[in-house]
Amino acid sequence: MSKKNFVIIAIVFFTTGVVLGATVMNDRHPDENETFVFEGQQAAPAILAANIGNGGKYPDLTQAAENSVNGVVHVKITGVERREMGMGTNPFNDPFFEFFFGQPQRPRVQERPVYASGSGVIISNDGYIVTNNHVINNANEIEVTLNDKRTFTATVVGQDPNTDIALIKIDAKDLTSIPFGNSDNLRVGEWVLAIGNPFNLTSTVTAGIISAKARSINILNAEMKIESFIQTDAAVNPGNSGGALVNTLGELVGINTAIASQTGSYTGYSFAVPVSIVSKVVTDLKQFGEVQRAVLGVSISEITDELAKEKNLNTLKGAYVQAVGENSAAEAAGIKEGDVITEVNGENVRSVAELQEKIGRFRPGDKVSVTIVREGKDKKVEIVLKMITKGQVQERKENDLQAAASHELHRLGAQWVINVQVTSGSRTNPHPHLSSDRLIQPGDLVFTDIDILHTGYHTCVYRTLCCGNF
What we know:
The chain is an alpha+beta fold and 470 residues long. Helices cover 16% and strands 38% of the residues.
């Protein structure tokens, strides 16, 4: 299958009726040209072919809807959109162009007011409300309307782009809140309700089932993103972002966030952040104003059939350790490159998304029990999680990409790989592990790290170069 460009479009509902899309490109291999959007267009709820419960009848969802609808609010924001206008941009959108030919003239920035809306969920009777970060991000003013039509001005308590969750607060008392359920106990096929304010249609309730769990769709654009979405077929639309996903007991099990579509319209796939992640994030935001993120300190990848055969792994479940960070929690616990992480505190880990979700529930200093598979044998290790710094975030990104590139180069037949570091304005330095009597020969593969410093931002670019004949 040929590689296709995977388009990600972030949208919210605008009161003018215009849907604005901010598009970025990622490399993926979808079955067709697939588009992921934050809360897509409207479509009819899915009808199950098989009846369940109570003698072949559908379950009664009215009580869950009545218990939850007053706990969902309408969030309206006023903000400013900034757009680059004019000529002089990089014609190839390639940092190499600027590295060799200099920075082109930067375009002018044009500002215009933006009015958008979404949803939120009341989680305490004193006015704390959880919503999506993309709903209130860059908002100058936030207005919250309750189901009883009372209106309040909200303030931002904290935001977490890594999970697309934000916590806001209104000055009110004796509100109706939605209690947290347990998203870990959700089963595929279980009924759920999506409650929100699509197209400014307040207090809209749709129904569907759990289609999948721990789904990663590569939609979040954050340095330490955690994607382990609940997938449902409940209809969600522009304006549902930040709304509630509840179970048949009326308990909150997720925050509706995104849909998958080939057309930009709702086609039966919606995604919610599980409450197991939400509860940790909002607790940290309320207590600290930011998320206390703990990490293992490893670079990980999914285990494919190809990787399992290459590395002689006896399992396709878990997360494969590509690299271990220096002075990390994983290194201190003895985890090594090539290990496969299969459990955290006795809970199975089937994928990278599941591992990120489970570790994301803890704080720095927490101790977790991790089961790894090494040389075909299970081994348990105790790990004290550490906090990650901004410098470690950059190092992790570099290690992830470098490990992936090295793996690909070796797969293509390279006997060894040199990491040559080049900084703008300096000469090329030899790799510290390259012996002085070993020179680069024609046909060698050279992995290069081009570090370019731009005004106001920093970009690291990686390219694979080929010397001589290949």
